[in-house]
Amino acid sequence: MGMAKIVSKLCLPAIAATALLSGCGASHDIEYSATGGGESGTGTVTYVDSSGETVTESVTFPWRKTVSVDEGVKVTLRVMPVPLTAKFGQLDIPLKVSCQISVGGDVKDSLPLHERLAECDTVSQ
Fold it and tell me: How many structural domains is the chain composed of?
């Protein structure tokens, strides 16, 4: 009997019994965080939610959200300030934003103070 068949025979009953075996249908807590500059301190965030769907929200910075996703799911966070620039006299200064993704409390990806757009991603493990 192949290893894949053995694993599937072990994991399926475990999933039905609320994943009693380690690594079978395990989920991980993902914490997204975003910050942004500018007077308004607002922006948009796009992230992967608990069901694996991509969600876009208008937010006030600093922003945090925790979701639980299955092991092996690719999660992303995209952060944009609104507006993209601020006026300083006659100059349009690009606003900066930051993103961070933590899995189980460990930072997996971060991008500090990036102009107009910050994107972070990782795989839940």
Answer: 1
Tens place of pLDDT for every residue, the chain, 125 residues?
A: 544 444 444 443 433 333 333 345 689 999 999 999 766 799 999 999 999 999 999 999 999 999 999 999 999 999 999 998 888 899 999 999 999 999 999 999 999 999 999 999 999 98
Residue 48 lies inside a defined structural domain of this protein:
yes
Beta strand segments in 37-105, E: 42-48, 54-60, 63-70, 74-81, 85-88, 91-94, 96-103
Alpha-carbon distance values, 62 to 14, 51, 57, 70 (Å) = 39, 24, 13, 26
Range(s) of the domain holding residue 84 = 27-123
